[in-house]
Amino acid sequence: xxxYRQKHTADWVQHFVRRGHPAARxxxxxxEGAVYWLDDGVIAKVWSGRPPQDLDLTRQVYAxxxxxxxxxxxxxxxxxxxxxxxxxxxxxxxxxxxxxxDATGRDLTSGETDALLTILRGLATVPGxxxxxxxxxxxxxxxxxxxxxxxxxxxxxxVERASRRHGELLAAHVPxxxxxxxxxxxxxxxxxxPSITVIHGDLVPPNVHVDATGRPVAILDFGFFTTAGDPxxxxxxxxxxxxxxxxxxxxxxxxxTRLFADELDYAPETLALYQAAYALTTxxxxxxxxxxxxxxxxxxxxxxxxx
Length: 307
What we know:
Blueprint: H1 10-18, E1 25-29, E2 33-39, E3 42-47, H2 55-66, E4 77-83, E5 86-92, E6 97-98, H3 110-123, H4 130-133, H5 151-165, H6 167-171, H7 177-189, E7 197-199, E8 208-210, E9 216-219, E10 227-229, H8 231-241, H9 249-264, H10 268-282, H11 293-304
Helix pairs in contact: 5-7, 5-10, 7-10, 8-9, 8-10, 10-11
Protein name: Aminoglycoside phosphotransferase domain-containing protein
Domain Aminoglycoside phosphotransferase: 24-244
Organism: Nonomuraea rosea
C-alpha cells in the first residue's frame, strides 16, 4: 500500500526554533500535513495537503464546538502564519495517547468501545451551526449543504458528484456500480429528517486520545469529512474505519455497527446506507488511479453492501 502521509523535515524544525521554540520536534504526520510539538500547550501544523479554504470559518467551527461542555478536548487555532506559500497553524496541544495505533487485532475491549460511545454521544450534543453547514468535505468542490435544507439530500448530492469523478475506475472493481449509485441516492433521499449535530467524520483510533485509564480526553483532526449532519453518519463511519485493513476488519465493522445501533438507537439499515455513501464519496481521495488501500477498501465495502 502506498503511504500518502506528509514527511517531516529538519528545515521546519529549525524554522520553529528560530520562531522561539527551541524544543521543537516532529510529532505526527497525515495526508493533510505534518505536526510539530513546540512547547507545553502548543503545536504547529504545516499544511502540505488541502488547507482550510477559509481559515476563519474553520476557527468558527472550532469555537462552535468548544462552546459546549464536552467530556473531552477539541482543537483550537491560536494563530496563523504563511511561509513561502505554505500555511502554518499554531494550535492548542491536545493531550493523551491514541486509543489504538493498530486496530487489526481481533479483540475489541470494553474500554475501547466505551471510549467510542462517549465520543459519539458527546458530539451528538453539539448542534449543527451555520458555520458547519458552510464546510466543504474532502474531494468535493462546494459546501455540502449548498442548495439543500436536508442532510440526507445534501449527502446524496455529494455521492452523485463523487461518483462522476472517477466512476469508470471504480466500476471496474464494483459490478453494476451505476445501479448501486442510483439505489444509494434514492435511499438517502428517502430518509426522514434527522437531528443535526456536528459530524467529525474521521474518528479513526489515532484521532481519539485517551488518558492512562482509557478515558477519552481529546479528539483530533476535524476537517476530513466535518460538517453538520445526522449523528448516525458519524457512528456509521466510525464503525467502518476502526479497522480498515486487518484480517478481522469485516467482523469489527459488524460488531461496532451492531453496538452503535443498540446503544445509540440508530437503525442498522441507516448505518449501512451511510457506510456505503461514505465509500462512494471518499474512494478516490488518496489517488486517482486506484493504487491505494483506501480505494480497494471502499470497493470492497460497496461489494459487500446490500444496495
